[in-house]
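Today's session is about reading a structure prediction critically. Students often jump straight to the picture, but the first step is always the sequence itself: look for stretches that repeat, for charged clusters, for runs of hydrophobic residues. Only then move on to the predicted structure, which in these notes is written as discrete structure tokens rather than atom positions. Here is the chain we will use throughout the hour.
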Amino acid sequence: MTIESADAAAVRAFLDPRHLELAEAVAAFAAAEIAPEPAPRDDAAGRDQARRLLAKLGEGGWCRHAVPARFGGAAEPIDLRACCLIREALAAASPLADSVFALQCLGSLPLSLGGRKELKRIWLPRVAAGEAMAAFAMTEPAAKGTNTSWRAGRRSSPTPGWPTSTPSSR
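Below is the predicted structure for this chain, in token form.
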């Protein structure tokens, strides 16, 4: 897949030459390294495959795009257009690979923007290297399955050092 084979006409005006190069490179990576992976047969196989995919994305340098340069990332600030192009290529090859990368972005961006310095120092380099899988969870009953019902809040974490947020009904 090349950027020309995707419907890039609508977004080309928003892409710099480096984005076009990135799109070509990630498409080639996805075709060679991700697409040959068979679909997982069950949940346990899917979890194992997600960990392997994360390692491949880290080794390929793709996870670096989810983290600011000062923590081992590819750009300062995070280039969201690059993240979208990476997701597009990964999704064409594997929905699971896209999900793994999307979690890296969704989990690391809030930490990058508003996390404590110590947490950034500990976790962001590991996310960039594909050594830690970031997460984004909406499990509290008040969230009702959508992050639009959350309001920023702070409470003590049951696990020291873990960031928390508190959803509340609107």
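Discussion point for the tutorial: The chain has a mean pLDDT of 85.
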